[in-house]
Recover the amino acids of this structure.
């Protein structure tokens, strides 16, 4: 199984909104966010992100391969996702050439991988030998889990908009950005503490430009507009199998 909740160390999350900022009017371009309250900036920035339907997130994460309950290797997972409403997504995962298609819609996630992907990962509680054949070219489905970073890749502020503070402005790639920092329990719910910093534009609309996470499960990604609406939909029922019971 691809156990995203066991993600090992990765780097920062970088988000580029150059295409979106071009939509700002003259007055927006001059508006300063430097004196605004952190909570207000978080709410507006999150609203801008949720309101977009053509966001593309490209990134990578280091994860552990799971053979039932044993973890025997660390691999880099590269992902390329289109995100709708700051949550649902559709895209691809690649683990050293082992590819999979990933979909999240509503309360269900779907993952369709090739033979190499499932041989590397397996699924929870089952060996790769048991699961590889019935899962090839089919979508393995399971319920949405808010503690699983695989399911929350479409969220940049984490599980809550509350508790962010504002740090001193910084300059990144020639732009002045405001760091909004949240330190608290990690989404996995096991008591791990991590830090998430979302950098928003200091002038104009406070689009998120960069995000960094620190803790047990940091990750890195870039975000742009794709130019095409993202419309994740559930796959046809006859192509779907249960994640934990792949045999029909």
């Amino acid at each position: 199984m691809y156990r995203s909740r066991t993600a090992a160390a990765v780097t920062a999350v970088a988000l580029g909104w150059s295409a979106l900022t071009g939509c700002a009017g003259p007055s927006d371009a001059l508006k300063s966010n430097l004196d605004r309250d952190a909570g207000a900036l978080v709410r507006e920035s999150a609203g801008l992100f949720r309101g977009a339907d053509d966001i593309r997130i490209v990134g990578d994460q280091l994860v552990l391969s799971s053979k039932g309950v044993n973890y025997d290797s660390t691999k880099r997972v590269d992902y390329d996702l289109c995100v709708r409403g700051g949550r649902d997504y559709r895209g691809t995962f690649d683990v050293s050439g082992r590819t999979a298609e990933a979909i999240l819609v509503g309360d269900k996630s779907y993952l369709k991988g090739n033979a190499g992907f499932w041989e590397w990962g397996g699924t929870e509680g089952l060996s790769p030998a048991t699961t590889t054949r019935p899962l090839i070219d089919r979508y393995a489905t399971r319920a949405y889990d808010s503690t699983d970073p695989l399911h929350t890749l479409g969220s940049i502020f984490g599980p809550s908009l509350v508790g962010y503070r504002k740090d001193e402005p910084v300059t990144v790639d020639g732009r002045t950005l405001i760091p909004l920092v949240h330190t608290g329990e990690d989404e996995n719910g096991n008591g791990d503490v991590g830090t998430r910093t979302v950098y928003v534009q200091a002038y104009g609309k406070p689009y998120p430009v960069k995000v960094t996470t620190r803790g047990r499960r940091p990750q890195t990604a870039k975000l742009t507009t794709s130019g095409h609406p993202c419309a994740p939909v559930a796959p046809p029922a006859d192509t779907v199998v249960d994640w934990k019971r792949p045999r029909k």
Notes: DSSP finds five helices and 15 strands in the chain. Residues 1-16, 18-23, 67-72 have pLDDT under 50 and may be disordered. The domain at 2-227 is CATH 2.50.20 (outer membrane lipoprotein receptor (LolB), chain A).
